[in-house]
Amino acid sequence: MNCRLSQQIQFILEIDKLKGILRQTRLIDDSRPENSAEHSWHLALMAIILAEYVPSQVDLGRAIIMVLLHDLVEIDAGDTFCYDVQGNQDKAIREEKAATRIFGMLPEDQGQSLREIWAEFEAAATPTAQFAVALDRLQPLLLNQQNQGGTWQLYGISEDQVMQRMAPVQDGTPQLWALVEQIVADCIKAGYLQKARSLSTNSQVD
Hints:
Elements: H1 3-14, E1 22-26, E2 33-35, H2 36-49, H3 60-69, H4 74-77, H5 91-103, H6 108-123, H7 127-146, H8 150-155, H9 159-172, H10 177-190
Antiparallel strand pairs: 1-2
Helix pairs in contact: 2-3, 2-7, 3-6, 3-7, 5-6, 6-7, 7-9, 7-10, 9-10
């Protein structure tokens, strides 16, 4: 096996570890937490199925690569719960370090290319990245709706926290924003999600 292929195979074996990284969001049947590999797969299929709602400036193929790559850093950094105020303070530092190691396993040209796509997602400054981030926000919303507010109920998450978290959907795929508003309203009505409360009393999950 030549050196380039050896590096590629080692990377392929390494990313299998993503299957063991558990997220806070639970499966629709509420049987267990989803893992980060399942989450990434789900986002990639969402991008394909929801392609008709993609803004014209978005490179759909690149967005699919983004969502498949975006959580690889969790192999080292772990999954940081989006409502964990303390954990999010050093999240960027931990994930940058992880990106250096994990993408550095590949041949330099390939590793650099994939890391640039990962960094583009993290910056969320391009239409393609904004669409990918919107999917990343929308998927847990759908799961929490279907499992009767699983994570929201567990941590006492409220409407204002969820709406703040969902805000990138409005930029990334504006046609789906009405869907977000409807889901949140339905979940409040069903008792899955607490009505908005003042920011001063928002829970901070540790």
